[in-house]
Amino acid sequence: MTAAAVTTDPDPVPSTGTVPPAPTRTATTAASTPVAVPAATRRPALDWRIRFGALSLIWGFSFLLIKVGTERYAPFQVTLGRLLSGTAVLAVAMVVRRERLPRTARTWGHLAVAAFFLNALPFSLFAYSELTIPSTLAGICNATSPLWGMALSLVALSEDRPTRRRVAGLGLGFLGVLTVLGAWQGFSGLDFSGTAMALLASLSYPIGWIYVRRTLAGSGSSTLALTGSQLFLGTVQIALVTPVFTSAPDGFPLLPTLAVVALGALGTGLAVLLQYGLVQEVGPTTAQMVTYFIPVIATAAGVAVLGEQLNWNTPVGALIVLAGAALTQSRARTPRRTPRP
Fold it and tell me: Which letter does DSSP use for residue 16 in this model?
């Protein structure tokens, strides 16, 4: 949803750093003119539940892939490889679907800002954070994006009115963050800089999302074209920075290289296409529920595959974070009026 359109569903906060997919339900513009958004005309070969599960697994394992990639590559190199392979996947999809690139300089300018906050900055921060913190903690920090989005929307989006339920969810969510971090122990044993970078990365997503909503309304381009262009600009931004802060790698070890390629091709490229199709088919409310499975899968993957340690407060705090995030995305039901006889 953009700044000029309001849907009947809560707005999804993408944790992938992409332009929010266009909603499939009837939207209402600022001028209160109904705009019918066409739904997909062909039924996908795979049931949406299967694709939902695949998307949850792909995004959940992304934090494990980042950890494996940073074992041999610098964080900026991991981000560059991720964006390169992700952009390649979306470029192929755009060619197949004959999508047109945005035509105006204004749109490209806004996409450059969106690419920084939704791709270049958070991808790099997560990569740097996993040099010193477990992938499980990074995945849980990522789940705070809806909380940051709720906090920012109170100030930045006048049409998104707070409710007691959503404010309570915000407080509950940040209580969960303190539980994960072990605040009662004085944050002992916690790497402050790595955790701060992961939390800043999760904050960067809703900042970029709000910017997109306010600036790219009525651009005339499809969500796929905007997202592909955004990833391309993010790739250019990181490509300019990487040689300044890193040196060329000594080699290309198989496992870390495959991890980086999979991170981009699957977690940034294919995942966007899956998310786009889910939003079209089942709507943004159902599609955004994948956000609540990501930290669970990230935690399970980190413990089972990487052997990361897990204290009791980590899963308990993660459940509190998810409960708070769910409340911030909820809307109070309006009672149905009984028609008069």
Answer: S
